[in-house]
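User: Could you go from structure to sequence for me? I need the amino acid at each position, not a summary. C-alpha cells:
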C-alpha cells in the first residue's frame, strides 16, 4: 500500500498502528463469508461430514484473504475514520511542490 495518496498527498497511516483496526473489519468480513458459505454448503450438499465444511471454509478463507485485506483498509479509511477528508488544498500544495 502506498504511504501517501498519489492524487492528493494524504498520508494514509495517520499514526503508528493505524491499520491494526482494519483487522476487526477483516474479521467481520470473514465471519460473514464463512457463515454464508457454511449455510450454502449445508443447503446444497446435505453432508454430515465435517471435512466437507472444513475444506470449503478453509478454501474460502484463503481465496477471500486478498479481498479482505484490501477492502477492510478501504472501509476503515472511508467509513470508519471521519477525520480523514479530501481537501483541494492538498492538491494545490502538492502541485506547488512539483513546480
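Assistant: Here is the amino acid at each position, in order:
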Amino acid at each position: 500500500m502506498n504511504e501517501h495518496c498519489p492524487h492528493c498527498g494524504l498520508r494514509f497511516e495517520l499514526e503508528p498502528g493505524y491499520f491494526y483496526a482494519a483487522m476487526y473489519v477483516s474479521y467481520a468480513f470473514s465471519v460473514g463469508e464463512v457463515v454464508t458459505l457454511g449455510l450454502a454448503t449445508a443447503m446444497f450438499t446435505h453432508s454430515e461430514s465435517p471435512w466437507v465444511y472444513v475444506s470449503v471454509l478453509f478454501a474460502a478463507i484463503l481465496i477471500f484473504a486478498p479481498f479482505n485485506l484490501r477492502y477492510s483498509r478501504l472501509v476503515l479509511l472511508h467509513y470508519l475514520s471521519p477525520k480523514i477528508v479530501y481537501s483541494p488544498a492538498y492538491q494545490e500544495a502538492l502541485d506547488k511542490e512539483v513546480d
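One structural detail worth keeping in mind: The mean pLDDT is 85.
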